[in-house]
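Hi, here's the filled form for the chain we discussed.

Project: internal
Contact: R.S.
Residues: 177
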Amino acid sequence: MQTVRDASGDRYLLVKRSAESSRVRDPNTGEERYLPNEELSFEGGEAPLSVAAAAVSEPVRRVVSAAHDDRSLGLLVELADRGPLPVVELLGAYDLCESDLHGLLSEFRAAGLVAETTVHGERGYDATETTRRAVASLRGGSEGDERSGSDEDSAVNGDGRENAAEDGNGNGNENEN
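And the returned structure, exactly as it came back:
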């Protein structure tokens, strides 16, 4: 596979080339179409798989690269949802030994996904904004949403209680728990 650009500079992946036209795929949408060869410049500089990966947002690519399994992804999700958390709480709450936890946190720090912080006077970690955007995107929300996957009609307070969304007049109506 090879990368090509059309006359307007848009980048495509070359699927099939014939004498007069080529079938190309838009890496952002996956849509395939035929374009005349005279409108294409054939490039060799960019790796086709890197071009295909560029269709996924940078925060999501970073999380996918750093999270090797469900446990590591789960740790990032927990920090995005509940952080910042002290190391002592992380060790007590999850099925990770101290060595595994510190190994994961070191990898995540190097990738810019978590930051060391102080929580109630103890060393802890918090998810970075990059991680929060990636987790929201992976859950199906937009990257601007810190939390997604919840009903549009309700929101969750920091203490876990749900609030009803604003009514048509801009008034928030709390549910009693």
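Let me know if anything looks off before we file it.
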